[in-house]
Design a protein that fits this description.
Elements (H helix, E strand, L loop, with lengths): L5 E5 L5 H13 L4 E6 L3 H11 L2 E3 L2 H8 L3 E4 L6 H10 L3 E5 L6 H14 L3 E4 L6 H11 L6 E11 L1 H6 L9 H17 L3 E9 L2 H4 L7 E8 L4 E10 L7 E9 L2 E6 L6 E3 L6 E3 L6 E4 L5 E4 L1 H17 L4 H4 L6 H20 L3 E2 L2
Helix pairs in contact: 1-10, 4-5, 5-12, 6-8, 8-12
């Protein structure tokens, strides 16, 4: 290994912390050099610096120019991904962007073109692909066990604390489809190896509106895919505080020769403690925190693996590998675009009440 991949993070909020844990973990393992975090919130930067030990900046452009990283990861609110990704690419830096790549197909195309022209890696965080149960679904599909996939159904539902407490200021700019369905749309597309053709969606605005948050409560998407495949997805972020997990989720796929169902929430581990006013399930596949024998914190899970994949791809390129060698081996800009096209069409359908053909 020549030099270690140098990495910076932009946006250190709720999910940005997952990026910090990942690169702290990888640096501890000697798999990257974790340089710095940029965020506009100075108080947050102070907290994150004391916990994760990287340098901090309030201006991400200044961070990129001073640190000269090989790659940056972007975990800012959805509507800011486009500008930040373009500015990073303009400075010759590989990028990893939280889902959705952008909230418009046009924005995704602009980012893809910029990365292609600059010969840079563009990866999207669709971490459902790293869940071992979903990897197994993909393997079985690739080996032909489903025969021809005919349809799929997925659900993903957050507890209400997500739009109410995490970020009420930008929940209205997002939606359960941008925040949740996009994961399942990508997962199904990836496993069934297909693309969206037309979308019809319905949604409800009741609960959050009554609490002063102007956002969709729930959205149901019906997607026609290529080769007569169909995909239904129901998403919401209004589950009661007493629900057993922060997210309820699962997927089922039916083909000419078989069926597979995965409950991605309830993995069979449940608890109830006096100091928590609900039953809880534990999805340790997504994230876990343990201690090494030397007492060092160790992070793991598919939420970490998906982000670590970017560092591994960067290292592969630094060690002389080419982008062509990586084709099809990570969620790229085109995957980001195809998922965005479906979710954007769903929002157009919500606005017009019509079936929307995808260009
Ligand atoms: N992969 C997943 O499962 C997953 C889960 C949650 C969130 N996300 C995605 O991650 C992204 C961030 O979500 P979140 O929940 O962490 O939101 P958040 O609001 O908690 O964090 C966003 C952070 O970005 C910072 N920020 C805003 N503008 C900035 C700028 N110009 N420069 C630098 N920092 C800036 C904010 O100060 C904040 O700390 C979103 O795109 C979201 O959809 C992905």
């Amino acid at each position: 290994m020549a030099t270690k991949a140098k990495i910076c993070v932009i946006g250190g909020g709720m999910f940005g912390e997952m990026h910090l844990r990942t690169f702290r973990q990888l640096e501890n393992e000697g798999r990257c050099e974790f340089q710095a975090l940029a965020d506009i919130n100075e108080e947050l930067l102070r907290q994150r610096r004391s916990e994760y030990g990287m340098r901090t900046y309030t201006d991400y452009v200044e961070m990129i120019e001073r640190e000269q990283p090989d790659g940056v990861t972007i975990a800012t609110p959805d509507h800011l991904h486009r500008q930040i990704a373009l500015e990073a690419i303009e400075r010759g830096v590989h990028v990893f962007v939280e889902k959705p790549l952008d909230v418009t197909a046009e924005g995704c195309r602009e980012i893809i073109e910029a990365a292609d022209e600059a010969g840079l890696l563009l990866e999207v965080d669709f971490h459902k692909r790293w869940d071992p149960y979903h990897l197994e679904m993909k393997r079985l599909a690739e080996e032909g066990h489903f025969g021809e996939v005919e349809y799929g159904y997925a659900w993903m539902e957050d507890r209400i604390e997500v739009p109410r407490d995490w970020w009420p200021d930008w929940a209205g700019e997002s939606s359960p489809a941008w925040f949740l369905a996009i994961h399942m749309v990508d997962l199904f597309r990836w496993i069934a190896d297909t693309r969206g053709v037309a979308v019809y969606a319905t949604g409800v605005k009741k609960k959050l509106a009554s609490m002063g948050v102007d956002a969709w409560d729930s959205i149901s998407l019906s997607v026609r895919m290529e080769n007569e495949v169909s995909f239904q997805c129901q998403v919401s972020w209004i589950l009661p505080d007493a629900f057993e997990a922060i997210v309820n989720q699962g997927i089922r796929i039916v083909g000419t020769e078989g069926i597979m169902e995965v409950d991605s929430q309830d993995r069979g581990a449940a608890s109830c403690f006096a100091d928590v006013d609900r039953m809880q399930t534990h999805n340790l596949g997504f994230f876990r925190e343990t201690k090494s024998k030397a007492g060092q914190t160790v992070y793991g899970g598919y939420g970490i693996d998906a982000i670590a994949d970017f560092a591994d791809n960067l290292q592969f390129l630094l060690d002389g590998g080419s982008l062509d060698d990586l084709t099809g081996k990570y969620p790229d800009g085109t995957d980001g675009l195809e998922a965005t096209k479906i979710v954007q069409a769903a929002h157009e359908s919500l606005a017009t009440g019509r079936l929307i053909e995808i260009a």
